[in-house]
Amino acid sequence: MRVACMFLLAAVxxxxxxxxxxxxxxxxxxxxxxxxxxxxDSNLVTANTYPAYVAYGENNFGVGGPFANHxxxxxxxxxxxxxxxxxxxxxxxxxxxxxxxxxxxxxxxEAGIGMYNLGDPGDPTxxxxxxxxxxxxxxxxxxxxxxxPFFLHGGIGTYIPGNAVTFGIQYNGGTNEIRYLYNGIWSxxxxxxxxxxxxxKIVFYSQNNPADNNPNAFAVAQWWDITVDVxxxxxxxxxxxxxxxxxxxx
Length: 250
Prior knowledge:
Elements: E1 27-31, E2 43-48, E3 53-59, E4 69-77, E5 80-81, E6 89-99, E7 108-117, E8 131-136, E9 141-145, E10 151-154, E11 164-172, E12 177-182, E13 185-186, E14 190-191, E15 200-209, E16 218-229, H1 233-245
């Protein structure tokens, strides 16, 4: 039964070595039940051997509401949340969301990369994500937010739950543009909007919106072979050029 896989998370070891990252980011800090904890009695399992492997697995949600449970892992330096202040960066990984979807926006699960903009007077404790790029249990691969431009890699059925895909984002601080990687395909560059003056935190996140008392509802979000590169300005052009060489359209 697929639900059983979540109980193996703590024992999973990804054999492929992670590439070295040119940055101070050397860890993630797990924040389970961070933005939303509307199903507090759910069974939650975590794993963190960054950069090799990070995961959240959840089932047995029970009765709750009105919305979802949210869990994330904040990119960090020595266990302290890393604050991005407009520098260029490239984040890539292999990601997998294993879940069953029971209808549009009913029992919907998400997994992806998110950003918390800091210094927002309406959200002083960075409680809620401002930008997100993610896949869903009903098959979307989509990005949107306050400062990330909307992009849809594909509608319902594009992502197949249980499949591993290459996934990532790249930001060019010189041009203030961003693009999204899905399954080996980069989106076009797009304007990223206004960068928050106080900086931002970037996370890997899992968000689960279960139907009450559904005994089969579960979600396992996994990220591995994570690389985070904050290049020097001179090397950014090379990164962008390499990305253009690898760009393919559907």
